[in-house]
Every structure is written in C-alpha cells, then in structure tokens.
Design a protein that fits this description.
The protein is of the alpha+beta class and 379 residues long. It has 2 domains: 21-251, no CATH class; 264-369, no CATH class. Helix content is 17%, strand content 23%. The protein has helices at residues 2-16, 195-202, 218-221, 234-240, 266-278, 334-340, 358-369; strands at residues 42-45, 48-51, 56-58, 70-76, 83-84, 98-106, 115-117, 126-127, 130-132, 136-147, 150-158, 165-167, 172-179, 185-192, 224-227, 230-233, 244-245. β8 (126-127) and β9 (130-132) form a beta hairpin. The protein is globular.
C-alpha cells in the first residue's frame, strides 16, 4: 500500500509540473553533450524555462537581428571566478564560463504550428528571470563554453513538445511564419547555423580565427536589467555578484545607444546598429577586412564607414550601385540594397537571417537621407 501511495504522489507531482531543484551547472571541458539539459544551465519545469542557481540573465543595449527572434541570454562562471573588464573588446572570461542564448518567439493567438508573432513586445515573455512557455515558443539555444584551449560554440534545437533541446552540429532549417499585429503573414525558413557558421561570426580576428563572445562587451552591457531582486545596471550587478573584476562605475564605461530609442541621436542609434550587426566581420581584423568597409564603433565617419567608397569588387552584391553610401541617397547606396535583400550572394549579413529587418533598414535609410554632400564617380 505504501509503495502504491508513493507512486501516486510521484505521478501527481509530475502532472502538476511542480518545480524541482536542478543539479549544479555542468562544465564540460571537452566533447559536445547530446542534450541541452546535460549542461544544467536552463531547464523546463512545468510551463516555465527556468535558470539554474548562479546563472545570470543579461541583455544588450542594441541586439543582433535574427529574423525577429527574441532572445534570453545568460552567463555562468565557476565559483570564485570572474571575467576581467575590457573597455573595448569582449571581457576576458575564465575557463569554465558557460554562456547561453535561447532564441524564441512570442506565440500567436491561434496557436498554429509554425506561426510565431512578429513583435517587439517582450512584456509577456518572462516568468521571473526565465521564460513563460504559455506565451513563447522555444526555437534553439546556443552554448558558448570557455575551455582550456579556447571558446567552443555548440547549437541545440528545441523539440515540438518544448521539453528538451538536442545537439544539431550541422544546423537545421525550421519553416516558420511571422504574423504581425494586423494579421499579415510572412513565411520564412529559420536557419539554425552549423558549427562552422558560428565560428565565421564569432572569429573576430580572421588571422588567428579564435572565436569570442560578441555581446558581452562594456558598451553593450552598460544598461539596467530587471533582475528578480530589482533593476540594476548590469556592469554594477556583475561586479557585485563577483562575475566581473576591474570595471569602472557605469558612468565611466562606454555605452552604445539603443537603436530603437527615438530619443537618442540618429547617428548614435545607427552606429550601435552597425556595430552589433556588422562590426564583428567588418573591422580591421575581421573576415570582411579586405572590403575596406569597417562598421564597428571605432570607425571614423569617412570612407572607411562607406561614405562615397566604391566596392572592392563588382558583382550582383552592388545592384549596379557605385558607392557603399551616397549621402542623401539611400536608394543609390549599396549598404541599403544589401540590407533589404534576402537573396543569397546579395544580402548582408550573409548568415543569421532569412528576412529583412524592415525597421533596421528604415533607420539606415533615414541616416543616409539626412547626410549632406555627394559622390563623384571616377571612371
């Protein structure tokens, strides 16, 4: 009788989706675990995706665009270890650091399989510091782990039941449909990158080709976050909990603008957008350094930024346009043509999206339209 009662109690707890304490975060010094749950970083409990103890959520002033996906970013470090602050580049994270980024979409009202909401509204996404699975659909989680030999990127794709994500080293293609507030629909293929594609973006120095995190930099993190304990500047919070050493007070640290904040100067918003979406390749050491077009935050506003700069190689990527940026003429500028395109061989960025970011393109177009001057073609 006693064993029957115990079995019934276990079944009731399972059906209720009651939460349980996770095993400690697991640092895998080598290999690629088959399941996301093998890391014990985030876990589905009932109708929530919850964070393990010591797993810290964070956000960026201006995020990278990925087909309108929303993202939950987290970082975990071994006890007693901390990242070393850097003013310009990624922080120097200790061996054992596990960074996760979960891509998800708000659910649409009709709940159709494959339909996801195209919205910038995050208000229904979170349950505490985790995610409310009644309102969001999980798509993929990428793990970036700092091992002795350097960083490794490992992609996981969530199942339809939203209970587990499994290793997909070769990537995946997920047919989805974006549905906006007016009911307009846009079919697209969400591309989960394979491991080599992860490296192509995260290898910010194309000589040594070592990969690094893109988001955790001072200028991206210098903002408030709504922690369970209350809102606090992220640089200050990381320092207070022991995850960051050597950081100045937030007011003395660089800070990118929020690209969507219309109260900020247009130029600052555009530079932040180009920095996070393009600067990891288009910089002096990056994969696109041979183009002569540098788009990171340190680039002066001259030909290096594309002003009246002819492309280094002609082809379909130019759309028969003569300059990367023509002041006052967004339609004549290569950069807007490539950002608007979804055609392989034309679109920029080359990977990481299957749709065009309409609002981002509109921002770039407004910036170019506001510029003064003109370009002289040299034949």
């Amino acid at each position: 009788m006693r064993s029957t009662r115990a079995a019934l109690l276990a079944l009731v707890l399972l059906l209720c989706g009651c939460s349980h304490e996770m095993a400690p975060v697991a640092f895998h010094a080598e290999g690629r675990p088959a399941k996301l749950s093998d890391w014990h970083v985030v876990e589905v409990q009932g109708d929530k995706l919850v964070l393990n103890q010591g797993v810290l959520p964070y956000d960026l002033n201006t995020p990278l665009f990925t087909d309108y996906a929303h993202k939950l970013r987290t970082v975990w470090m071994p006890k007693g270890a901390s990242a070393k602050y850097d003013t310009a580049d990624s922080f120097d994270f200790p061996v054992g650091t596990v960074i996760s980024k979960t891509f998800y979409y708000p659910r649409t009202g009709d709940g159709k399989t494959g339909d996801v909401a195209r919205t910038d509204d995050y208000s229904h996404d979170f349950a505490g510091e985790g995610l409310d699975l009644k309102h969001v659909r999980l798509v993929e989680t990428r793990i970036l782990v700092r091992r002795q030999e350097g960083w490794a990127a490992i992609p996981y794709v969530w199942n339809e039941a939203q209970t587990e994500a499994t290793l997909q080293r070769t990537g995946a293609v997920l047919p989805l449909t974006l549905v906006d507030a007016a009911g307009a629909r846009e079919d697209f293929n969400y591309i989960v990158p394979d491991e080599s594609q992860c490296q192509s973006c995260h290898a910010q120095d194309w000589v040594d080709r070592k990969i690094h995190p893109i988001g955790p930099k001072a200028r991206h993190l210098n903002k408030d976050y709504a922690y369970a304990s209350g809102a606090e500047n992220q640089l200050a919070h990381w320092t207070r909990v022991g995850y960051l050493s050597g950081a100045p007070v937030p007011g003395d640290a660089p800070r990118d603008a929020n690209w969507a904040d219309e109260r900020a100067p247009l130029d600052a918003r555009v530079r932040a957008y180009l920095d996070i979406n393009c600067g990891h390749c288009h910089n002096a050491r990056g994969a696109a350094n041979t183009t002569g077009l540098t788009l990171d935050w340190r680039t002066p506003e001259d030909r290096h930024l594309g002003l009246c700069k002819p492309p280094t190689a002609a082809g379909q990527g130019t759309g028969d346009r003569l300059f990367d940026i023509v002041p006052g003429q967004p339609d004549a500028s290569i950069i807007t043509y490539r950002l608007e395109s979804t055609e392989p061989g034309v679109m920029m960025p080359e990977i990481g999206r299957s749709t065009s970011h309409r609002e981002g393109v509109a921002l770039i177009r407004a910036w170019i339209a506001a510029q003064q001057g003109g370009c002289v073609a040299i034949h």
